[in-house]
Structures are given as structure tokens and as C-alpha cells.
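wait is this the right file?? whatever heres the structure
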């Protein structure tokens, strides 16, 4: 595995890789890798000969008062995990490489970014799409893999690719969970043992929605009530939103179908966690 941290180096390497006729897949991350990130690499390798992973904690997607400064970082460990999984090039730019002084242009999403995560984190998706757009330009991948864990992000990246006529395929990979249901997240490292247990209310609420759906319930309001009952058992968890939505633009629905999305965000102590399921699939 080669590590590249400047744009000219990255471009040179990509040009050479492409000259060999190889398909290139991009896996964008903020590092502190876990099995969820590594499944994106597995999927990328199934579909392309060459996998480029980026590790960049993107300051643009953090709001004031969010955890940019404390976001977990361990590049030495990321190098080992990425290489062992078959990443060929690791792009690790510094902030001044991605946003040199004077940089000011942003990718501004449409109304799909205004709800759920976008409402809770103003400006977040403009930050995400700007960095993803830059990475797409730098690597010009044939495809890029994203996790369903961040479902609104995946929806918006697809929308950006469609609206800006980008010639690449977006592949969305199912959420990887711990055995007890907790979705893997770099932020899980913030949780102490009690909070780790309390956080199970999120996946527990999603399971409750899935079970109600399997039992025949189709009213979103009834699914939301089932979720609230599970969440109420864990007062340490503060719910930020609870979404029951259609899968394409995440607009709320009143009547659900198997492909409806159920998503939620909550705080356990100072840690903000998100999770979601496709209703017909459950926790997987
Ligand atoms: P992050 O480093 O949090 O920006 O995540 C980088 C990519 O990994 C995004 O596409 C995420 O959706 C994806 N990802 C994060 N956690 C998981 C997970 N538990 N399962 C699958 N993909 C994930």
C-alpha cells in the first residue's frame, strides 16, 4: 500500500493506475477505521481492481460546538487495517491540502439536506458534498462505496452524482453492527460501559419498528409509538429525531412499505449517535 498526502502525488499515482486499464474504486472515510469501513473496502474490491481510500477528518462538515477537535484519530492503526484489507493507495491529506487559504466554493445541496440530519446539523451536508466532490475530482473513480449507516449522506451523494452528471457508480453497503445490534461507529469510542449499554435503545427501537412491521403494522404513527416505548425504557438517551420516510429523498410517509427507511438520532451523554434500517430488512 502506498500512502499519498499531496494532490500532485495522488494525481500521478491515479494516472498511472488508470493507464494500466484498471478500474478504480474510492472509499472516503474520516479514519479511526472499524469493520464498517472495511466492508466498504471489501465491496469496492469486488467491483474494481484498485481501491483508493481517503482518511480525512473534514472540518467543513462539523458545526461549531461539535466534536471536530476530539474526533478519534489513529492513522498508524488505520494504515495497518487498510493495507491488510487490500487498499492499494491511502490518501491522507492535511487540512491545508484540501482547503488551502482562500478556498471558498461549496457544494450546496437542495431540500433533501434540510430534513433529519441536515436540520440537526446545519451546513453539515454542504461540508460533506464539498469534500466528496473534491475527492471525486481528484481520484476520478469508476465507483465509490458509502455506508447505509449514514443513509441521508448516501442519498445526497447519489443526488449530487445525478444532478452534476458525474460518470461514476455509487454503491451503498449495509450497516455493520456489533452482535448485540449497536451500529459500528468511530464515535462509539466515546461511550463508557454504561453508555454503551444505554445506546442499545437506538437499535432496540429500530428492532421494535421492524417487529411491528413484520406483525402487519403499516401506520408510521404506530411504528413511531412502538419505537418511543422502547426508547422510554432508557431515559439516558435523548432522541433528536425519529424519521419514517421513503428511501429516495427521505420524505416522511404516513403508510410504510418494505423499502421505507426508519432512522433516528440520539444523544447518550455528550455522544451523538445515528442509526437506521430498511423496514423490510430489519437489523440484518
Ligand atoms: P466516516 O468515517 O464515519 O465518515 O464513515 C466513512 C464511511 O463508512 C461512510 O460511507 C459511512 O457510511 C461508512 N460507515 C460508517 N459506519 C458504518 C457501519 N457501521 N456500517 C457500514 N458502513 C459504515
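ok assuming it is, sequence goes like this
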Amino acid at each position: 500500500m502506498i500512502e499519498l498526502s499531496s494532490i500532485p502525488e495522488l494525481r500521478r499515482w491515479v494516472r498511472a493506475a488508470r493507464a494500466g486499464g484498471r478500474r478504480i474504486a474510492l472509499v472516503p472515510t474520516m479514519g479511526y477505521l472499524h469493520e464498517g469501513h472495511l466492508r466498504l473496502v471489501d465491496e469496492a474490491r469486488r467491483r474494481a481492481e484498485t481501491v483508493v481510500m481517503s482518511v480525512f477528518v473534514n472540518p467543513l462538515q462539523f458545526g461549531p460546538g461539535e466534536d471536530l477537535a476530539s474526533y478519534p484519530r489513529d492513522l498508524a492503526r488505520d494504515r495497518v487495517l487498510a493495507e491488510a484489507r487490500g487498499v492499494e493507495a491511502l490518501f491522507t491529506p492535511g487540512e491545508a491540502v484540501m482547503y488551502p487559504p482562500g478556498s471558498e466554493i461549496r457544494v450546496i445541496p437542495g431540500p433533501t439536506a434540510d430534513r433529519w440530519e441536515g436540520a440537526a446539523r446545519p451546513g453539515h451536508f454542504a461540508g460533506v458534498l464539498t469534500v466528496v466532490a473534491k475527492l471525486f475530482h481528484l481520484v476520478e473513480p469508476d465507483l465509490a462505496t458509502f455506508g447505509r449507516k449514514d443513509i441521508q449522506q448516501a442519498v445526497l451523494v447519489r443526488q449530487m452524482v445525478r444532478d452534476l452528471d458525474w460518470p461514476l457508480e455509487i454503491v451503498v453497503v449495509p450497516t455493520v453492527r456489533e452482535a448485540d445490534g449497536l451500529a459500528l461507529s468511530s464515535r462509539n469510542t466515546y461511550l463508557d460501559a454504561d453508555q454503551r449499554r444505554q445506546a442499545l435503545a437506538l437499535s432496540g427501537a429500530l428492532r421494535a419498528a421492524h417487529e411491528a412491521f413484520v406483525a402487519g403494522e403499516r401506520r408510521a404513527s404506530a411504528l413511531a409509538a412502538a419505537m418511543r416505548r422502547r426508547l422510554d425504557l432508557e431515559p439516558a438517551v435523548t432522541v433528536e429525531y425519529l424519521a419514517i420516510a421513503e428511501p429516495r429523498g427521505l420524505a416522511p410517509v404516513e403508510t410504510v412499505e418494505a423499502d421505507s427507511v426508519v432512522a433516528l438520532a440520539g444523544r447518550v451523554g455528550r455522544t451523538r449517535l445515528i442509526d437506521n434500517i430498511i423496514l423490510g430488512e430489519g437489523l440484518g
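Residues 29-30, 36-37, 39-40, 146-147, 149-150, 173, 175-176, 183-186 surround adenosine monophosphate (CB under 6 Å). so i think its the right one actually
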